[in-house]
Specification:
Keywords: ATP-binding, Nucleotide-binding, Transport. It holds the Pfam family ABC_tran. GO terms for molecular function: ATP binding; ATP hydrolysis activity. InterPro entries: AAA+_ATPase, ABC_transporter-like_ATP-bd, ABC_transporter-like_CS, ABC_transporter_ATP-binding, P-loop_NTPase. This protein is of the alpha/beta class. The chain has 2 domains: 221 residues, 3-Layer(aba) Sandwich (Rossmann fold); 71 residues, 2-Layer Sandwich (Alpha-Beta Plaits), CATH 3.30.70. The protein contains 10 helices and 14 strands. A 6-stranded mixed β-sheet has the order 6-7-8-3-9-10, sandwiched between helices. Strands 2-1-4-5 form a 4-stranded antiparallel β-sheet. A 4-stranded antiparallel β-sheet has the order 12-13-11-14. The two termini are 40 Å apart. The protein binds adenosine-5'-triphosphate. Adenosine-5'-triphosphate binds next to helix 1.
Length: 313
């Protein structure tokens, strides 16, 4: 068994008008991971997924799924992939059961009612199997999309914006479903505009910008290495300026002088040459500033992401 489920090498896509949507992408997706692909609108996320799924022809480069080349061994490669698009198309009057069973047939797999039942049960759709899609709630329709994509027992599942426009409760529900799939060994690649979703779900994160992968990193590592921390001291009495004795610290005033905010690198807390938190607190005391409260916060993936995209503009 190979370590990599999907191997992408030197992938380029030039659309017919001459626009280069992918500029030589190299990416390896590990078996069994949840990989979140982030990027601003038009960055190339859908193009990348579409090439891997065989919907768009690559202009150059190579893609292998479970070792099968997506061009030379299209059927083998494609049969391992499930694609969950954003919306259902044209099946409003079919039943849940028929829609999902039909999807399996499209991949030339023999009928297997037991598998379809398992998929529907795992997505809490079993009770709705005789319902026409048009009668389902938005959340149920989303589940049907996933059920369709799982009907042919794929090993990789692509989710394109799985929770776009759904409410918070349903989003959490969907996350549970996706985690459950991963726990059953399915490799998951999702695109999302919700950074929170990537922060919550992903094992690794890739950021794509203008057709280039600008970063691929373990989520934990990304948050550790790029995340700065802030310590806020709420002062008893407001100050108009930061006292000189504190000038060696990276401080700023906030809340009309009622708060001092100290930014520091969370990874180098102990070896910060400009002084650590203990030093700061001691100096604050000796400067005669009393504080009634203090709290720390770590920058979120959202801030990290915004900075990343901004930095490279
Ligand atoms: N068929 C096409 N012909 C020409 N250009 C295209 C075509 N499809 C996409 N593009 C262009 O390629 C670029 C990447 O598009 P893509 O849909 O892959 O981006 P995306 O990252 O998925 O964006 P979004 O987040 O908005 O869905 C865009 O500039 C888009 O206009």
């Amino acid at each position: 068994m190979q370590e990599a489920m999907i191997e992408i090498e030197g992938l380029r896509k030039v659309y017919s008008g001459g626009f280069e949507a992918l500029k030589g992408v190299d990416l390896s997706i590990r078996r069994g991971e949840i990989f979140a692909l982030l990027g601003p609108n038009g960055a190339g996320k859908t193009t990348l997924i579409s090439v891997v799924c065989g919907l768009v022809n690559p202009s150059a480069g190579q893609v292998r799924v479970d070792g099968y080349d997506i061009l030379d061994d299209f059927r083998e490669a494609r049969s391992r992939i499930g694609l969950v698009p954003q919306e259902l198309t044209n099946e409003a009057f079919s039943t849940v059961w028929d829609t999902v069973s039909f999807s399996r047939g499209l991949f030339g797999k023999p009928r297997d009612p037991a598998h379809i039942e398992k998929v529907l049960r795992s997505l809490s759709l079993w009770d709705k199997r005789r319902n026409r899609l048009i009668t389902l709630s938005g959340g149920m329709k989303r589940r049907v999309l996933i059920a369709k994509a799982l009907a042919h027992e794929p090993e990789v599942l692509f989710l394109d914006e799985p929770t776009a426009g759904v409410d918070v409760e349903l989003r959490r529900d969907m996350w549970e479903v996706v985690r459950g799939l991963r726990d059953n060994g399915v490799t998951i690649i999702l695109t999302t505009h919700y950074i929170e979703e990537a922060e919550e779900m992903a094992d690794r994160i890739g950021v794509i910008r203008s057709g280039e992968l600008v970063l691929v990193e373990e989520k934990q590592e990304l948050m550790r290495s790029l995340g700065s921390k802030e310590l806020t001291l709420h002062l008893h009495e407001p100050v108009t300026a930061i006292p000189d004795v504190l000038s060696r610290f990276d401080l700023r005033l906030a809340e009309d002088g009622h708060a001092l905010i100290y930014s520091y690198d969370a990874t180098r807390e102990d070896s910060n040459p400009r002084g650590g938190i203990a030093d700061l607190l001691a100096e604050v005391e000796s400067a005669g500033l009393g504080f009634k409260d203090l709290h720390t916060r770590q920058s979120s993936l959202e801030e990290i992401f915004v900075n990343l995209v901004r930095e490279r503009t």
